[in-house]
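A.,

Following up on our hallway conversation. Structure tokens first:
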């Protein structure tokens, strides 16, 4: 992957690395993708940010549905098992809460990592969505 030449400005009036890093703020990335027509580095990072956010929304919905299913099954199992079922239900609830505490940190870590790579003028691609972003943006540089 090519990196943008240093010192070049974008049509946004910013340094490309700064604009690409700011693109990891989801709504800013969406705006930058549609406003920036020439700089593929900014377009790539902006689209990657949008796809990364969409991926996490879908993951959150799927995990919410799975959590509801597990809660229902756990409730039924708790009623069937008596007092031992209460312990199982509490354990499942604890695992579910821990997962929902860790996932936002992983999401935030990914955004920070992508923004740092963009600021360093590196066209880093996240697995799977990086290739999609490159195709949609028309390249990386």
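Then the amino acids I'd put at each of the 141 positions:
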């Amino acid at each position: 992957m090519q990196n943008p030449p240093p010192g070049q400005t974008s049509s946004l009036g910013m340094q490309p690395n700064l604009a690409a890093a700011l693109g990891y703020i989801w709504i800013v990335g969406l705006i930058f993708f549609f406003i920036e027509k020439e700089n593929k580095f900014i377009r790539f990072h902006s689209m990657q940010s949008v796809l990364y956010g969409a991926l996490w929304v879908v993951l959150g919905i799927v995990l919410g549905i799975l959590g509801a299913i597990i809660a229902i099954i756990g409730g039924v199992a708790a009623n069937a098992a008596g007092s031992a079922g209460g312990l199982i239900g509490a354990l499942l609830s604890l695992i579910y809460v821990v997962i929902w505490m860790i996932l936002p940190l992983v999401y935030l870590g990914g955004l920070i990592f992508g923004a740092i790579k963009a600021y360093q003028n590196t066209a880093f691609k996240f697995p799977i969505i990086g290739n999609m972003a490159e195709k949609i943006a028309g390249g990386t540089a």
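The chain has a mean pLDDT of 85. Curious whether your intuition agrees with the design.

B.
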